[in-house]
Design goal:
Layout (H helix, E strand, L loop, with lengths): L16 H4 L7 H19 L1 H4 L10 H23 L11 H8 L6 H21 L9 E3 L2 E3 L1 H22 L1
Antiparallel strand pairs: 1-2
């Protein structure tokens, strides 16, 4: 199992503290795999009808939340790859709402979204396994702020926990 230390303050924008404060330990691979299992179990227990309904007008459905998680993980993984490879160009931010709107996750079968989530998680772990430890602390710029690949990798499980908690509490 891949263990990596969590980032230090200053390796990321304070905005991400909300997510990073949700994760504990250093066994990254175990956390990522456990989260995948927890998500699959939740969607299986709740059923297809649950995945289609938001908890209130104007909020995303569970399928849209899942799609947002996948998109965000892809973006964070891409950023981590870029900075681990020494990219010096600043990478743009992204506005989550147009991403969800344009993705039309409501038209995607839930089985496909769940498969996509698991595939993204496997790709994430595959990348992490081949990166040299030294590259995890290279600094790049995303959304106008300095950030390291290490921080980007750890934001992923924190962001997931944030949304999993919302799915469990509000839906």
């Amino acid at each position: 199992m891949k263990t990596i230390d969590q980032p230090k303050k200053g390796d990321y924008s304070p905005f991400f503290s909300t997510y990073l404060n949700l994760v504990t330990g250093n066994n990254y691979e175990e956390q990522v795999l456990n989260q995948s299992n927890a998500l699959l179990k939740l969607f299986d227990e709740k059923g297809k009808a649950w995945a289609e309904k938001s908890y209130t007008e104007g909020k995303w459905t569970p399928k849209e939340v899942l799609g947002h998680i996948i998109d965000t993980e892809r973006i964070m993984t891409f950023r981590a790859l870029c900075f681990a490879r020494g990219e010096k160009s600043a990478l743009p931010g992204f506005d989550q709402d147009p991403y969800v709107l344009n993705a039309r996750f409501g038209h995607v079968p839930i089985e496909h979204l769940l498969d996509d989530f698991v595939s993204q998680r496997m790709a994430l772990l595959s990348l992490l396994r081949i990166l040299h430890e030294d590259t995890l602390d290279l600094v790049g710029t995303a959304s106008g702020n300095p950030i390291t690949p290490r921080a980007l990798f750890w934001i992923i499980p924190g962001h997931f926990i944030h949304h999993l908690n919302i799915l469990k509490e509000r839906y």
